[in-house]
Amino acid sequence: MRIILLGAPGAGKGTQADSIKGKYPVAHISTGDILRANVKAGTELGKSAKEYMDAGKLVPDEVIIGMMEKRLLEADCKDGFLLDGFPRTIGQAEALDLMLAKLGIKLDAVVSLEIDDDTVVGRLTARRVCKQCGEIYNTVLKPAAKEGVCDKCGGEVIQRDDDKESVIRNRLSVFHGQTSPLIDYYGKKGLLITVDATGGKDAVLKILEQRKG
Ligand SMILES: [Zn+2]
After folding, report:
1. Ramachandran region, residue 200 (left: φ > 0; alpha: ψ -120 to 50; beta: rest)
2. Mean of the pLDDT values across residues 110-124?
3. What is the CATH number of the domain that holds 30?
4. Where are the beta strands (DSSP E) in the chain?
5. 168 C-alpha to center of ligand 1: Å?
6. Which residues are annotated as a binding site?
7. Residues with active-site annotation
8. Domain ranges, residue 183
9. Which parts are annotated binding residues for AMP?
10. Is residue 197 included in any domain, yes or no?
11. pLDDT digit string, tens, across residues 185-205
């Protein structure tokens, strides 16, 4: 199974990816992971990426694509892979197509995990974190026993700026701006499957199974 998983921050891509991994031998690949791995290993691409990041710039598509190509040639991708949150732009999607064609690899599906913005805002604004030990809380699902105090270490439990509504709405608007052209792009190729992100942790897996069967 060779899949791209698209979905807004807070849509639950990680949960769906875990469920797919439970059934199919797919390597789970995200841009963030391969960037960190290349920087850590000190590869040429990693050094190049680090220069951009240190300068506070976006890592260019050709660097990301170069890392992605190396990653897809690793042994654990032989039986399948799941690209998590990549590609992000049409430019990256086109570059990915060229690279996959070169490697003789065909995608099985591009899954768009659909969720409405208010649900995402509800999910993410509930997040709290301990300033001291990093323990994650949730005001609905996992509140601290005493509000504002960490159960584990007694540290202060706060809402990070990233989890505030205005920041989340802004991220969602950037996400939609970048993703709607991708949805059209993969729709025209006949690869797109849309899945309701509120359909439970196996929502994507169920649809992939149905299509296969
Ligand atoms: Zn703590």
Report:
1. left
2. 95
3. 3.40.50.300
4. 2-7, 27-30, 81-84, 109-114, 127-130, 136-138, 157-158, 192-196
5. 24
6. 10-15, 31, 36, 57-59, 85-88, 92, 127, 130, 133, 136-137, 150, 153, 160, 171, 199
7. 13, 88, 127, 160, 171
8. 2-116+165-212
9. 31, 36, 57-59, 85-88, 92, 160, 171
10. yes
11. 999 999 999 999 999 999 999
